[in-house]
Amino acid sequence: MSKKLNFLESSFCKVLRPPQLNLRIIKPSSMAVFAFVLFALFIVFAGVIYDLIVEPPSIGVEYVSIFQYNGSTIVAMAGKNCVAIAGDTRFGVRNQTVALDSNRIFKINNRTLFGMTGLNTDILTLRESFKFQMNLYNLEEEREISPKTFAHNVAQTLYSKRFGPYFITPIIAGLEGEDYTPFLCATDLIGAMEFPKSFVVAGTGEESLMGVCETFYKENMEPDELFEVISQCLLAAVDRDALSGWGSVVHVLTKDGITTKRLRTRKD
Amino acid sequence: MQKGGFNFDLYQRNVELIEKNNYKVPKTTKTGTTIVGVVFSDGVVLGADTRATSGPIVADPNCEKIHRISDYIWCAGAGTAADTENTTGMISLQLELLSLSTGRSPRVRTALTLLKNFLFRYHGYISAALVLGGVDFTGPHLHMIHPHGSTSTLPYISMGSGSLAAMAVLETGYNSKMGEEDAKSLVHQAILSGILNDLGSGGNVDLCVIKHKSMEFFRNIDTTNSKRKFRKKLPYMFKSGSTKILEKEIKEKMEKMEIVNEKENEIEELEEL
Questions:
Q1: Catalytic residue check, B33
Q2: Which residues does UniProt assign to the signal peptide (chain A) (predicted)?
Q3: B contacts of A235 (beta carbons < 8 Å)
């Protein structure tokens, strides 16, 4: 055994010599070692916490609009002394559907219907805010608000939040004046109003809706025909939009009252 | 109730929603626009197209871009639609109050100063590019106002995404001795060139002719772009009952309720006890 080692020693170790490093032997104190270990542990744990909480792993839904977080669609059309407003009733959070009966179209008074699309939390907040403002208006003015005034009220509320807006697109549909002339108004999220005479669309399905409405819309439709046209437009458009659907509701407003009908849509 | 002015309550929430989750900032309605103003011998002609866009989609094919500041001072606006409407509306009311308190008819230069001071305070965040024109007792005036608050006074102006197309027509056709008809037709041609050559402008042409103590507004003077030639003659007919209904509810119009006197008597009886 020793002969073999001597051979190795003599052949290899003569060529390969360890370098002559004049190192000082460091003998750290126990507190220093403890501090170093504690610091290393802190770095590791901080990294883990950052990774889990500040940048949590998620299904990569990047560069998508905030309006697609909940997803909804609303359309309103004008007929002869009547207006109709229709919307879907899905309440979803990104890809998951949470409820099938969320109502986004509200009655302000006998002459005005108000629908909103966009972020659901803002829809609910603004619903309460407008309810409060309208109650105060009724008490102060002792009359019901006209749809045009209400539309301007909505636009002003939205523009006051110009630099931190509510993420909604509202639609106001009503009958204006003694003649019950149809009134339609849509605004963008900061209150730029438009007053078309035919139809307004809003929501994640608005691009498909514009196409079908341009095709099927006629002027001076009676309430029955208006209901058929607006229903077919909404059903066609929500079929092409993944984030809307799961039930729909149509309100037709005439001088005699509101007729509400629920329609069956595809449940996917 | 809300006080006046801008409300920044939701700013923090929006920063966290949008930036931390990498959502895109939502599109506002813009007026891509071609707006033009020209001074002629007796007054000012303002012109604008009528298209409002939301991204690549036309939100409103026939919107009004020429806003009233005062009876003989009008302003055409390009940029974010909500900003132009509300800025011109605000300055219009300030000018009205000023003219009532001074007892004098308003000057174009006052409107200009109010607008530029307002826009400069917000350092361009209020995206409103304006062409302000009018006739006051000092004569006709035409100014351009940029979103950051800088202004220029010129005899002919074009702004908006179609400004290059319109300016080409203005540079060719303008001369300082134009009459009303020449100025109107020049502005008309400039707006048309913007509508045809720029994707952000379209629709109809609006004109506004302002002279001393007279104003004529020609809404939709040219609608050749709006009439669809090959529209299906017989529209689609949906027979009554083609849509299947799950539930139906009819709410008749509710009348106001009247107070019944019987209850008052009941309360009186209780008090006696």
A1: yes
A2: none
A3: 243
